[in-house]
Amino acid sequence: xxxxxxxxxxxxxxxxxxxxxxxxxxxxxxxxxxxxxxxxxxxxxxxxxxxxxxxxxxxxxxxxxxxxxxxxxxxxxxxxxxxxxxxxxxxxxxxxxxxxxxxxxxxxxxxxxxxxxxxxxxxxxxxxxxxxxxxxxxxxxxxxxxxxxxxxxxxxxxxxxxxxxxxxxxxxxxxxxxxxx
Amino acid sequence: xxxxxxxxxxxxxxxxxxxxxxxxxxxxxxxxxxxxxxxxxxxxxxxxxxxxxxxxxxxxxxxxxxxxxxxxxxxxxxxxxxxxxxxxxxxxxxxxxxx
Lengths: 181, 99
Fold this sequence. Notes:
The structure holds 2 protein chains of 2 kinds.
Chain A: H1 2-22, H2 26-46, H3 50-74, H4 90-110, H5 125-135, H6 137-158, H7 169-180
Helix pairs in contact in A: 1-2, 2-3, 5-6
Chain B: H1 3-23, H2 27-51, H3 56-86
Helix pairs in contact in B: 1-2, 2-3
């Protein structure tokens, strides 16, 4: 039962991942990415990581996929059709990916004692919460600073710079002062 | 289901992401491939945490997911900027490094 579930999730993961990188329609690729991320959440649930599975669905499937759809909409061409994302350098890319996979697979097979671990201890959500909010509190707070910096950076980068129409705060104040005189 | 089978699955997902990263030419599609690679790394983290005991695997995955969301926000802002500047998001149009 467990092996069958794992095989099913593996097939779903790999098929949807290949559809993400091979599809010709960008919107479809984003939706396939959502499928990949949902299958990963199922895999996390099978690995007794229910908290991570929940975070995965909320942040990745709910947040990232929605953001990506926005990104596709923003970068639409004038005709309103989703852009064609052609695949280039196909052979070289496939060869590189295959070589990388064989190297990692060889390393996994060559590592002794991977599967000979002790009986796994059950990890409860309370344990995870204690680690995040007590032992790793500094990292947790740093992440919040990083998110803030990323949001501000994204706004600064994406801001519409239109020097002809935009007035700076000081210029607006001067204009108001002139109008008052 | 063993640790090595989970790691093999993670390696396969990562390789698919590498393929997409190298083969695609559209910035948003490249971002999708990067998402795949980050997701594969998270699978490895959770698998190690599950089979070798300990909460740090799951903790690190939560942090990694938050990092990825930040990365997507900045990446999409760059895609918007590129599109506004050149009317296209194929990476071939981005040849200058000056803002």
